[in-house]
Amino acid sequence: GENVGLHLPTLSVQEGDNSIINCAYSNSASDYFIWYKQESGKGPQFIIDIRSNMDKRQGQRVTVLLNKTVKHLSLQIAATQPGDSAVYFCAEGDSGSARQLTFGSGTQLTVLP
Amino acid sequence: DTAVSQTPKYLVTQMGNDKSIKCEQNLGHDTMYWYKQDSKKFLKIMFSYNNKELIINETVPNRFSPKSPDKAHLNLHINSLELGDSAVYFCASSQEGSVGTGSTDTQYFGPGTRLTVL
Questions:
Q1: CA–CA dist A90, A63 (Å, integer)
Q2: Separation of alpha carbons B35 and B76, rounded Å
Q3: pLDDT (tens digit, 9 = 90+) per residue, B46-74?
């Protein structure tokens, strides 16, 4: 399943399928980007990050892709599991700006059995 | 072995009261933050402290006052609480990333404090 960013804040996928969560960022000066997962009743949890000198980074079952030309970031989750159900946030940061993170509005991922 | 902890987890109070939320991190980080998350899950930075010094102070009513007694603690005091202050407040901490290592200024969040103003 795939969402198209802020216009579709919810994404439902079948268990075992791959998920793609998209994010558009606005600040051309942003030089690092972070994906967070927030489960119900908990704080945002770090998933993966990427610096602007990279266009892809892989973690365990997750991959982040960065396209600086169109200011687009995506999070791919392989073999989505029920425990992946959560709200996912992208955040952009500018090392020259007091280390402040700006968060996107979030995407609710629901994994269907 | 909690990394970033907040107390209390829930806070219910009347309008006009003064309340405090406490935050502690045991990660040895040099920077701490307060965020407000509204009912639509939007996360907005409020304050940031680096080594006990205020470095970010977004447009927040002056009824909100952060206090950092030391690097490991950042408390949030709120005077004259209003209905609109109802939200979840998150504390976070980070350590400046090292140049060339690929690390970023990743912020680690606490579990949140749900504030309800009646």
A1: 13
A2: 10
A3: 988 887 788 777 778 999 999 999 989 99
